Amino acid sequence: MKDMDFVTLLGLVAGTLTTISFLPQAIKTYKSRSTKDISLEMFGLFTVGVFLWLVYGLYINSLPIILANAVTFVLAFIILVLKLKHG
Amino acid sequence: MKDMDFVTLLGLVAGTLTTISFLPQAIKTYKSRSTKDISLEMFGLFTVGVFLWLVYGLYINSLPIILANAVTFVLAFIILVLKLKHG
Question: B32 contacts in A (CB within 8 Å)?
């Protein structure tokens, strides 16, 4: 149980980092409205992939994977929409 | 066992998508040498986070998480280095 808690914590820290990392990009892109250097293919593929990670997390019942990918999905989707809007 | 295989396959597809998504961004950034619209905070936090996901995958013994994050780490690190180089 103690090991389990450490591993869950590790996953939560990992998920927090990869999730919040999309926040500065979303803010930067929203403010600058400049998306020239951002790859449409990256955020298209990434958004679909993160959604599938979310489903995977539900299947294996991993709280860190579920939480992280739910929030990451929203942020990546926002960046994708901004890219589609500003080109 | 059949369910297990489906879930592992789902994770592998998810991991393949989120992992290969970084390839077009890495290629685009390498070719254009233009990183103005890319957030340094995003790729800094993301690279550290993906490394921790890799360790998490080793702990919970999840092949999709291990494979996906090993490759994603390399690609995100390349983009981070290009961002640091070109500003």
Answer: 37
pLDDT tens string B6-21: 998 998 899 899 999 9
Q: Where are the alpha helices (DSSP H) in chain A?
A: 2-20, 22-32, 40-60, 63-86
CA distances from A79 to A30, A51, A56, A63, B73 (A): 8, 15, 23, 25, 21
Report the pLDDT value the prediction gives residue B49, as an integer from 0 to 100.
96
Give the model confidence (pLDDT) of A73-85 as tens digits: 999 999 999 999 9
Q: What domains, with CATH codes, occur in chain A?
A: 3-86 (1.20.1280.290)
Question: What sign has the CA pseudo-torsion A87, B26, B9, B11?
Answer: negative
- Among B17, B25, B62, select the one facing A52 at the smallest CB separation: B17
| Complex ipTM value | 0.86
- Under the banding of pLDDT at 50, 70 and 90, the label for residue A27 is very high
Number of CB pairs, chain A paired with chain B, less than 8 A apart: 128
Neighbours of B26 (CB within 10 A): 18
Q: Judge if pTM exceeds 0.90.
A: no
Widest Cα–Cα separation across chain B: 49
Q: Does A48 lie at the interface with B, CB-CB under 8 angstroms?
A: yes
- Contact by Cβ (8 Å): B53, A14: yes
